[in-house]
Amino acid sequence: MSARNPDPAVPAAPSYATAFRPDLCAPAMSPEKLVMVDFAEGWIHPDGLGVAVMPTAGLHAHGTRKGWRWTTDEVTDGVAATDEDIAGLGADPVVACLLGHDVAAGSGAREQAVVVGAVARTSGGGVRWVGRLPQGCVGSTVFIASPLSGSGFKLVCVGVVLPGDGHHTLATFDRIRTALRAVAPDTATAREPTEPLPPTPGPKRRWWQRRG
Questions:
Q1: What number is the average pLDDT over the span 39-49?
Q2: Could you give phi then psi for residue 78, rounded to 5 degrees?
């Protein structure tokens, strides 16, 4: 959406308004919607990847100014599948699980869901999701078991599910890493807030907590 400009001689800065689930920030935001200037322009769309990325410094600074903080679950580099993990995927399906939010029929509630399926290499060299994909789970993370020494294994995130017509390919982390390396010099110059940020408030001391 665009902000309404009271003075036609002065260009209005484009703004974006959206609503978030209460569990995405703590404490919950007082307004029903989050409004940010130039939000849409902050997204970077690497060619051919299928997903967009955004530097989060501005998002965290915005939350700090408003008195709340983001509570997101990040896929860290230690959880993301390595290039070797992804290269080991072949045409034979490998058991995988998808972590996303299903959309309940009727109410439209978005409940967290774990969906069991598989991933397999396509004839074109990509990786696709094999199995049912519930409504609302496009963009969800997909995990497989990566073998360790002996009989051990660890769960690693292969990538995220992309939109598709019946067949859903994945934006895998080998391609995501390559894309992020290419845009990293640009993100380093991303606009930072010019005004000083207020200190992050510490937890309130309750009456039953004595000072040490």
A1: 86
A2: -75, -25
The Cα-based distances of 33 to 27, 51, 65, 91, 110 in angstroms read: 14, 24, 16, 45, 18
Q: How far apart are CA 159 and CA 89, in angstroms?
A: 13
Sign of the four-CA dihedral 87, 138, 72, 38: positive
The values of phi and psi at residue 176, to 5°, are -65, -45
Residue 131 and residue 119 in contact, taking contact as beta carbons nearer than 8 Å: no
Pairing of strands 94-103, 141-147: antiparallel
Determine the straight-line distance between the first and last CA of the chain, rounded to whole angstroms.
51
Give the predicted TM-score (pTM) of the model. Answer: 0.71
The more confidently predicted of residues 91 and 30 is: 91
Q: What tokens were used for 179?
A: 């894309």
Question: pLDDT tens for residues 80-111?
Answer: 999 999 999 999 999 999 999 888 777 777 78
The tokens of 117 are what?
């399926």
- Cα separation of 38 and 57, whole Å? 14
How far is it, in rounded angstroms, from Cα 119 to Cα 161?
11
Q: Which class for 113: exposed (0-12), middle (13-18), buried (19 or more C-beta within 10 A)?
A: middle
d(CA 173, CA 82): 7
- Strand 69-70 relative to strand 25-26, pairing: antiparallel
Query: What single DSSP character describes residue 195?
Result: S
